[in-house]
Write a structure and sequence with these properties.
By secondary structure, the protein is α/β, with parallel strands linked by helices. A 5-stranded parallel β-sheet has the order 2-1-3-4-5, with helices on both faces.
Length: 131
């Protein structure tokens, strides 16, 4: 794989629920980021924006390829950007699994904008990138 050029402002949002995806996208844009949304993990993985993405915000529970599988696929392809998971189904085992695999945060829907903004700042700072 060639050199990837991550752009500190690009955040990719992956969620199969359209309203949730739109809401998170608008929220991330209100923080001053460029946000791109994807209806599935495969849509992100096949996107030309993937290599430029600074951080991924993904739902955990999605059909076909779930959030944890997306994380594994990103890492196997050499993409090490931070990932923030969101879920409407709090499960401590899944949360622990996500964090042990390298997720920056796991947020339970609904969450407030301040919590997401703090999580994004922390994730990007840990990645050597700042907003």
């Amino acid at each position: 794989m060639g050199q990837t050029v991550r752009e500190p402002n690009i955040i990719s949002i992956v969620d199969d629920d359209e309203w949730s995806r739109i809401g998170i996208t608008k929220l991330v844009q209100s923080f001053g980021f460029t946000a791109h949304d994807f209806p599935s993990a495969h849509a992100l993985l096949n996107s030309q924006l993937l290599a430029r993405t600074a951080c991924v915000i993904s739902d955990i529970q999605m059909p076909v390829l779930n959030g944890l599988q997306l994380l594994g696929e990103l890492r196997s392809r050499g993409h090490n950007m931070p990932i923030i998971f969101v879920t409407a189904f709090p499960d401590e085992r899944v949360r622990a699994q996500a964090l042990s695999r390298g997720a920056s945060c796991v947020l339970i829907k609904p969450f407030d904008g301040e919590t997401l903004e703090l999580c994004l700042a922390t994730a990007l700072k840990g990645n050597g990138t700042s907003a």
